[in-house]
Backbone:
């Protein structure tokens, strides 16, 4: 079963994954970047491709989110698997991101909203004013940009 680590980009997801991987995937609790690979990103192109899903077609990817999660859970049996995502828990084009048959829970990492603009500016390598305008103007859902 999947436990989601969900966050806005640059919100501390990597820090949380370092703690979780050190605790769950090492014998001595010492962190290494190698164990960080135990918590994968979702969506992960590899699983989609193994199932024959065209990853260049965003609608096909969204349509198959649940199928890929079912396959992941089937492969892992009853094991708990952490997956990192920046996706939201909402329907897109009538398709669910996840469901209770595949998901055990979620840890949602909330960033202090007072520095989202500065972080976004740094991440996109743009000015602070441009970052603020982009945040106010655009909303990205599943790779689609919606202007407000």
Residues:
């Amino acid at each position: 079963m999947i436990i989601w680590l969900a966050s806005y980009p640059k919100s501390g997801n990597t820090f949380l994954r370092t703690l979780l991987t050190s605790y769950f995937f090492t014998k001595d609790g010492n962190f290494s970047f190698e164990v960080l690979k135990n918590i994968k990103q979702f969506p992960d192109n590899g699983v989609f491709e193994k199932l024959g899903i065209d990853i260049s077609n965003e609608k096909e990817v969204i349509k198959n989110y649940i199928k890929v999660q079912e396959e992941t859970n089937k492969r892992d049996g009853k094991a708990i698997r952490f997956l990192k995502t920046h996706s939201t828990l909402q329907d897109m084009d009538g398709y669910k991101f996840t469901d209770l048959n595949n998901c055990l829970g979620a840890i949602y990492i909330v960033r202090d909203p007072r520095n989202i603009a500065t972080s976004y500016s740094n991440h996109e390598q743009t000015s602070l004013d441009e970052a603020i305008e982009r945040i106010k103007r655009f909303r990205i859902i599943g790779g689609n940009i919606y202007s407000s």
Q: What stands out?
A: The chain has a mean pLDDT of 85.
